[in-house]
Amino acid sequence: MRMTDNNFGSNLRLALAITATAGVMICLWLLLHSCTPQTLDDDRPTGTGIALRLGTVSMERGGKAPTRASSAITTMSGWEFASGDLLNVYVQATGSGTQASKGVYSRNSTGGWEPQYSTKAAYWQRSTGNTVSILWGPEADGKVYHLPDSYDALPGSDMKAKMWNYTKCTNFANLWRCCDLLHYQAADIPAQNTALSAELSHSMAQLCVELTAGKGMTEDDVKTATVSILGAYGCYTTDATSLQPVACQAEDATATSSPTTKDITLLKNGDTSLKHYALLLPRQVFPSSGRMIKISIGSGIYYYTPTGNVTPTAGNCLNLKLQVDKTAVNALNVSSTGWDSEVTTGEPPTTDGEVTVVPSTAGSLTLPTNLSGTDNKLMITGQIDGEDLKTLSKSMDKFSELYINATLSGTTALPEEFAKNMANLKVITLPKGMTRIENYAFRGCAALTSISLPEGVTSIGNSAFSGCAALTSISLPEGVTSIGSWAFGYCAALTSISLPEGVKSIGIDAFYGCAALTSISLPKELTSIGERTFCLCAALTSISLPKGVTSIGREAFSSCAALTSISLPEKLTSIGSSAFHGCKALTSISLPEKVTKIEEQTFDGCAALTSISLPEGVTSIGNSAFNGCIALTSISLPEKLTSIGNAAFNGCKVLTSISLPEGVTSIGNSAFYGCAALTSISLPKGVASIGSWTFNGCTALTSISLPEKLTSIENAAFKNCTALTKVILLTGTTLPTCGNSTTFNMQSPSPVLFLPAISAEEFAAATDKYTKWGSPTPAWSAVHYAYSPGSGTTPADYANPDNYLGHWP
């Protein structure tokens, strides 16, 4: 019995111990789980009730975790997810605005992924049409997270507290992992019981700076360098839609404009390494106007400023191969490559990006043959010559930006057709030592917005920039002396240009069709304005010509529709035909005294011109010279004028009177056609003929005296002169010939013909000759002739119809 009792007691104590132990375990389990932070809500929508199973999770283009080491690591192993790493997984009905089902998945010891706890799974929301998002990084929780101040030193406690996943920042590899944010997002995925595998993309941009020694530096010098990026975005929040980082201000996650910036020290891959790395927030533009990289070597500090804007992009590596000289830092290679691509000296990247080529000797330029696309940026330093420029010309279709900072030898000219019709070219900088831009160099570069010409340039060739429709401005060096024909023709966006004082010649059509050009300053040494130089410059409002200009070519300012005023110099002797044709805003103009001829169409269509005074020396007015000057009310014609061309004043519908000088002998066809306000005009004695349609439509003209030497009047000369009732013929008994029956088809009521002094006998002997003159049938309601009773003598002023004695046989 004792043995039995002893066995019973022993068993009882054992049972109690097991029970107690189990109770403790249960309490510990409950305690642990009640204290674990809950990343997700417990009321997640379960949708179909099928939990998402996560399979293989990989990284796009591999991961790369530089690690700090005493010596450089040539090939850095890609980092991988470790046991215990967590991924946030979201499933939402595609196109739905409802809450997503969220889960947290943990990597287990065998490399698989499973819900952190049974309640932490994400659920398929529909049988079809699910959007799945996976995030390695902070949730869209409205919080601000910081990048470290340095990748080359482990963060202190204050900085760690501001970073994501800060508890794992225990070494350089983990620091990199915590900043290398990843995301995956795919739509229209059907619910499935099988595991979903995913490839995560890098949300950050990577920066790799590789240094090389230049003038005054040794490789040992640059191995001691510390490299920093200046003014980089330092804070971010996670966007709720894309689940990608967005730069923001340090104290406000919603303030995404003007994000907080700071200088960040790059991770040096080994104490003596030449390569330095950092992870950056994408989409930040580092402008060409500011320093981007700081390089500290001993007590010296050196800065790199990009020649063009630089923008790191998510999932790519921005590679800068920088040559550090004692006085400067130059880029040997600037490229954007895949995440894990290495930069190798002499090998340009195989994708679109920035490329620097450094030919060591002139004539040795070699360009990449494996560039894709047309939006590449090329920087050339080193030595080049004319053959190199020809080589470059053949590949210009690959580049949108070209910066030639090389030393030029053997030539001073940019070749003809260097980048002709390269519609992709936007920006170009030409090298020092260049003096000539040859013909057609940039003709048809429709996207070109910026060009930097070196100070030594003296001439711009024919059509050098014609058709550069996006070019808004250009600065010409002070040494430029000549501008070729069509040099800037059809640069439709060019708003202003300042021509250097040394320019002595401007070719024809130089600024033809520069429709946005509002102003231009012409150099003092200029002596002529060529043909069509400013034709179709529709926005040009005013221009002052230099004092030395003696000639203006034909159509020089034709169709400058906004031109309101122009100052012509005293030395001007000739103005070409159509010089101001279509200048419909021009209200007045003063012609210098040395001008002797108004060429055809000179002021044709100047619809706002109200008055003009012609110089005393003008002898002729050409065809259509003032055609369509519908606001012209008066004009003073000089005494030396001898001829008026066809349609010279055609359509001058408010011109009320005009005095023709006695020296005028010829008046062209339609000279005063449609001058509807013209009430009177005195024809000079020497006029021998009146052309067709000369006064057609002069509906206010009431009387006209035809001069003694007049021998012919052509068709429709006075047609539609509906107010013309008095025609005084001073030609004696020899009547001028008329073109046809339309000559005096005036459509006026009761027109009267006044004849010169003849006797009653003379009139009676040739009544039909007078009454039917100008028409095959009688055109006149009355014919009067000068007759004094009893004497037959001519009245003293027989040109005045009031002195005529009416006589009708």
TrEMBL record:
Transmembrane regions listed in the UniProt entry: 12-32
Keyword Membrane set for record: yes
InterPro entries named among the record's database cross-references: LRR_5, LRR_dom_sf, Mfa-like_1, Surface_bspA-like
UniProtKB keywords: Membrane, Transmembrane, Transmembrane helix
Protein name: Fimbrillin-like
Species in which this protein is naturally found: Bacteroides stercorirosoris
